[in-house]
Amino acid sequence: MRGNILGIFFSILSGVLIFLIVVAYGRSDRIEPEFRFSSVDIIYDSKTTDNDLKNGIAAYDAKDGDLTRRIVVEKVVLNREKETAVVYYAVADLSGNVTKQSRVFPADIADIDYNGDSSETMEDGMFPNMMDGMNKESGEGGFMIPVGDETETQGEGEATSETSATAENNTTGN
Question: For the CA atoms of 99, 25, 63, 96, what is the dihedral angle to 10 degrees?
Fold first, then answer.
């Protein structure tokens, strides 16, 4: 008797939970934001920044409103034959819905070839100098290993005696 009552109770509870999940899913924001473009006279060259490329573009969502500050430039693809740059934008609303669109700008290919593409430069020093520890004469790579108070350079496939001893202790100690 008691088992039947528990079975009925859990069946009703499961039905209520399913109903709540369906209601919550129905109320969730599943509509992606939209881009709105306005005409701008930009020529993509070596000095063009992401902020320049974001001029004349806005993003809106029915639930979240203005999302213009959340727009990112994903990549820029140069078409050297047509002398154009295709800029790919993306924006996500607060529910995680993403929209991607592209826009074509005229490009100054001669300037980009001479001065380099601004999108190819590293910004804000985010990446360390990857050439540290590199033997520039022989071209052999290496990386820095701190050993005690000193730092030794270790090339690829080499091991210091301290590193080898530690590795042997780990294999014999297990």
Answer: -30
